[in-house]
From TrEMBL:
InterPro entries: HotDog_dom_sf, MaoC-like_dom, MCH/BMMD. It comes from Azotobacter beijerinckii. This is Acyl dehydratase. Residues 19-113 form the MaoC-like domain. PANTHER family: BETA-METHYLMALYL-COA DEHYDRATASE, MONOAMINE OXIDASE-RELATED. It comes from the Bacteria. Pfam families: MaoC_dehydratas.
Amino acid sequence: MTIQEKYWDDAQEGDECISPEYTVTKERILAYADLTGDHTPVHVDEAYANASHFGCLVAHGLFGLSIADGLKTQSEFRFLPGMSLGWTWDFVLPIKVNDVLHVKFRVGAMRPSNSKPGWGIVVLPSELVNQKGEVVQRGEHRLMIPRRPQA
């Protein structure tokens, strides 16, 4: 599959995309805990997690956001590298071992950058969805993307 990265000018409000899938495993949750140093028991201790209100090991909230961002970069709708301006993100449901996740996102608001000529701002409303079709996380990613060079 050949993916052509898009300039800001190549997008239109309402463009949509669904990412490839990602399977959550216990090993990936533990690796994330090691990477971040967050060894909260509900993420790494099965006995503790099983006795918790979740009833099982759950992934870190930021694990989900990280996966969502990574899945967007693997999607057919991909922008040229730009600059992340920030996230607004909600953790809706727990992410559990063996969940199969994908991201649904669309191009929301767009505007030329006021501070950087040659760049545009785009807002990507996004949902991280599990194999049951449940939204486990949702929010928006704001990006600054290069505009197509003028000939």
